[in-house]
Design brief:
about 290 residues; alpha+beta; Ribosomal Protein S5, domain 2; six-stranded mixed sheet
């Protein structure tokens, strides 16, 4: 069995107050991308589950997801999972979360409590159970599906060096005093819901909704992000911003042809730029 695990893009990310559990309230429009890892699932040769992904050193969220399924009573025979990584690691694109969510989809219809397990694994996992354009709230556990987006394309500039640790970016955001109070977050939420439900292209969104409250923190930790954003604007991006906690920068373009042309015009240091587009809906858990 081969599963697709699409990357996610944050079309706007707004940071609210810290909750009692230590997590921040967030509001974001999550857009799954055609850029995706391939998760290959086979029967294991032995009695133990096995996860193979050479690009990940240390604990793999897929292994944690499998352990969670087993702890909740999933009785399928042991599996061997090999991950063909195409999503850059620790890049703010939710690759590890996408892989874990793909594995959780294996237990669809066989096990209760998958949504709760997804939320426990990480903020990006719940939205990836059934990848589609959505307004995401809470600390990522509240997913409100939205109409599919019209055609547009993106150029991603992933990190030239190692990625950024999400927790470090949030700490920096707190130190910089970034974020919004509850009332302002509620106002932003209403506007995000309205624009997303309209079916409009992100290229037509109000500029202040195409913002990422973590961007300043990410740039503070990795100043080269600002250079990538400037490069995207120089080649004609309608809007350039950071996705998630960074360090990936992205630019919005009208279509894949414009994005391809822009990627070709980037300075040679960005030869790793990726042209992609929104991923249409995949079957999964509701």
């Amino acid at each position: 069995m081969s599963l697709l695990a699409p990357a996610k893009l944050n079309l706007g990310l707004f940071l609210g107050p810290r909750r009692e559990d230590g997590l921040h309230e967030l509001r974001s429009l999550f857009c799954p991308l055609a850029l995706a890892d391939r998760v290959i699932v086979e029967e294991a040769p032995g009695d133990a589950d096995e996860v193979i992904c050479p690009q990940i050193t240390g604990p793999n969220l897929v292994a944690v997801a499998l352990e969670g399924l087993r702890a909740r009573g999933w009785r399928r025979a042991a599996v061997r999972i090999e991950i063909d990584k195409r999503i850059p690691v620790a890049a703010g694109l939710g690759g590890g979360s996408a892989d874990a969510a793909a594995v959780l989809r294996l237990a669809a219809g066989e096990l209760d409590g998958i949504g709760e397990l997804a939320a426990a694994l990480g903020a990006d996992v719940p939205s990836q159970l059934a990848p589609r354009f959505a307004l995401v709230s809470g600390a990522g556990e509240v997913v409100e599906p939205m109409p599919d987006l019209p055609e547009f394309a993106l150029v991603l500039i992933p990190p030239e060096e190692e990625g950024l640790e999400t927790a470090a970016v949030y700490r920096e955001a707190d130190q910089l005093g970034l974020g919004r109070d509850a009332a302002e977050l509620d106002r932003v939420t209403a506007r995000l819901r309205q624009v997303a439900a309209s079916g409009a292209s992100p290229l037509d969104y109000p500029p202040d909704l195409l913002a990422n409250d973590l961007e300043q923190a990410a740039i503070s930790l990795r100043p080269t992000i600002a250079e990538a954003l400037a490069a995207l604007e120089e080649v004609g991006a309608a809007r350039a911003m950071v996705t998630g906690s960074g360090p990936t920068a992205f630019g919005l373009f009208e279509d894949v042809f414009a994005a391809d042309e822009a990627a070709s015009a980037l300075p040679p240091r960005y030869a790793n730029a990726i042209v992609t587009a929104p991923q249409r809906r995949l079957a999964g858990l509701s």
